[in-house]
Amino acid sequence: MITDKGSPFNSKGFDDYCTEENIQNLQIPTGVPRGNGQVERIHRTLIPVLTTLSIDDPTKWYKFVDRLQRILNSTPNRSTKWSPFEILTGVTMRNKKDLYLRILLMEEMVEELQEQRNQLRQDAKRNIQKIQAENKRTYDRKRKKAPGYRLID
């Protein structure tokens, strides 16, 4: 997990949780957008959408966060080809009124769910690596070779 050095991520309780769950927490300096570019990118999407949804009363933007979060978590990602919810749980997200998901999760055998989830995560990782390689090729095509320097006496 990549976090900045903000106070929520520096508490002993958070460190204990990360250790207990075997989560490696990499901390970047606060206020460095290139270190947490994925978060900054999603914020560039969220803020205008929340502004549009709360146009009638801008002070009530928070009422739309849960719905927007549900939509983002259930939307397939270009890199992974699956939604974040599906990668996390191993099943496709249903709408909040659909109780089928709760029944499905309770009835699903733990081993089968873990195998499916692990396979999805491996596939998602391969897709991410594929997109990263594609992005690198695109970047490298535009990149100029650094000039060579000689040591002068």
UniProtKB/TrEMBL annotation:
Residues 96-141 form a coiled coil. Residues 1-92 form the Integrase catalytic domain. InterPro entries: Integrase_cat-core, Retrovirus_Pol_polyprotein, RNaseH-like_sf, RNaseH_sf. GO terms for biological process: DNA integration. GO terms for molecular function: nucleic acid binding. Signal peptide: none annotated. Keywords: Coiled coil. This is Transposon Tf2-6 polyprotein. It comes from Trichonephila inaurata madagascariensis. The gene is Tf2-6_419.
